[in-house]
Amino acid sequence: MLVSYSKRSTSFFMNRALLDDSVSFNEEQHQLIESNSKYYQFGIDYTINKEHSLSASISSDGGTNETDIDSETDQFAFETLNNRQFSHNYSESRNNAYTLDLGYRYDIGDKGERLDFASSYGENKMDNSNFNKNELIDIINNTNTSNSNRDSQDQDHVKYSSRLDYTLPLKDKKGKFEVGIKYDI
């Protein structure tokens, strides 16, 4: 089992101006990022007898990521505050996945002839959402405009795979003949 958590917070302040100082900007931004993930895996190998063996494993992987950004920008013209802009951006993503693997091996005789079968099934679900809000205050004209948007996206992925392989050593033991078939969806 593997579990991880991280939290990172950053802030910055920036002052930009044209060379003649006719227009300048002061910008301040605060950002918080949180990540949380968990991974589990369990497996077993079982030898039935000298010729037959089985294997199985299951794994689960999931986590969340959240980003929260707030910023404020002041615009000056000849050192007079013209407008102020506020921005808030929040995004969140969630991921949950699991995989099941099964295997069977049949050793035919004692000369290396072998039959292998393996199958895998997995699902992955991802949910993403975003929220953005912006507000502009025009100090000179005493107006205020704002807009916001929200979007989300959900994705589901399913994967299935199976394969069957046959191996036959050549008589001079300098090579082997292999043939197989695989199916993916």
Structure write-up:
This protein has 185 residues and is mainly beta. A 7-stranded antiparallel sheet has the order 1-2-3-4-5-6-7, with no helix packed on it. The model has no long low-confidence stretch (mean pLDDT 92).
Descriptive key words:
185 residues, mainly beta, 7-stranded antiparallel sheet
Shape: rod-shaped
- The fraction of residues assigned to DSSP E strands is over 45%
Average pLDDT value?
A: 92
| Helical content band | under 10%
What are the segments in which pLDDT stays under 50 over at least 5 consecutive residues? none
Number of helices: 0
Give the SSE order as H and E letters.
EEEEEEE
Backbone CA Rg: 30 Å
Number of strands: 7
How far apart, in Å, are the first and last alpha carbons?
29 Å
Strand order, largest beta sheet = 1-2-3-4-5-6-7
**Main beta-sheet strand count, sense and barrel state:** 7 strands, antiparallel
Overall structural class, as computed from helix and strand content, comes to mainly beta
